[in-house]
Amino acid sequence: MGINFRREIVANRLIPWLDQRTYLSSLRYFLRNKMIPNHKHTIWYLFSGLTLFLFIVQIVTGALLLLYYKPTPETAYESVKYIIDEVPYGNLVRSIHVWSSHFMIAAIAVHMFSVYFMKAYRKPREAMWLTGFVLLVLTLGFGFTGYLLPWDTAAFFATQIGTEIPRSIPLFGETIALLLRGGTEVGGETLTRLFALHVVVLPLVALLVLGVHLLLNQLHGTSKPIGVSEKGPPIPFLPSFI
Amino acid sequence: MEADRGSSHDSRRSALTKLLLGWTAVIVLPSLYVIGRYLVPPLRKVVQASSVIAARINEIPVNSAKIVKLGNKPLILVHTETGEYKAFSATCTHLGCVIEYRGDKGGYFHCNCHGGEYDLSGKNISGPPPKPLTPYSVSIKDQSIIVMRS
Fold first, then answer.
1. Contact B95 A161 (CB under 8 A)
2. Contact state of A161 with B113 under an 8 Å Cβ cutoff
3. CATH code for position A186
4. How far apart are CA A165 and CA B41, in angstroms?
5. B79: part of which helix (H) or strand (E)?
6. A157, A167, A180: best mutation site toward chain B, by most B Cβ within 10 Å?
7. What is the CATH number assigned to the segment(s) B51-149?
8. pLDDT digit string (tens) for A80-134?
9. Are the beta carbons of A160 and B41 separated by less than 8 Å?
10. ipTM entry
11. Torsion-angle region of residue A53: left (phi > 0), alpha (psi -120 to 50) or beta?
12. Residue A37 domain flag
């Protein structure tokens, strides 16, 4: 009844049982054979993974902030202050959320430019470029909706400005501003609206689009730029890119 | 015979498809309508106050200002260096931030958001504001300073 026995149960019983029901070994096989082209620009591929990593950081820290944050005009500012001043490591969690959001935008910019300059959007990868663009817009949406949530003066006026800008759009401007603000002025309704967008609507849409983006990446494999000579054999994705 | 059965099968299938589409329309379209209406907030009646008692006399020192709400929009009441009272809408005509009064350089209004500036007649003199501030009329009655929409 030692470790060997337990290991044997896992190897001979549990893994085959799981595999027959979930086809997990094909996923393992796929990941083990996933190769990244090896050339002088290979380093730029890392920024896609960095963006994904920062997105996961945002989900984890965001979920933690949700435990204490209270999205009403009376309580929002106080609850953010409470997170910063009193909750153990609250300031750390909030700072990571804020800074990681900034870095995520930067990582996306680098990722997008690297794709652009390496012409990785070429056929058949156009759909990856398009879903990537949608993800960029969604990320900017996260930034805009998240900025209001601390409900301090800067947040209030930034949202005042951000919701005033769409008003200059002909025909639909007023309606868009009304829908964003939840009223004619920036107020409590704006806060709950942008909060709902920030923590429910945008994450769900982003996860869906991200799923398609990553699935397409697996289907097409990593693009190699034209005319760049390989430095050596392709690098296995596991473990070199984790 | 076989062909007949095939075509009745097809027509049955297309009828079912139509039924399904009909059901979808019956359920999906009203749902979309309800969601659309739900998203548009009911507009509260805007308080259309035409005047407000903005301050007591002697409340605002010379060369300073006070921000008061007229209805649900802020206005700024200034006691100028020359002793006059002037009132304007305090909403910056650029992107809607609330402006403040600055007492140096003979007095002017400044918007902290993008640095827009207005002179004491409300005229936009610097920065991005496209229009002057809306002026309000000021009257003094029984020690109270009353601001009215002009």
1. yes
2. yes
3. 1.20.810.10
4. 19
5. strand B73-79
6. A157
7. 2.102.10.10
8. 999 999 999 999 999 999 999 999 999 999 999 999 999 999 999 999 999 999 9
9. no
10. 0.72
11. alpha
12. no
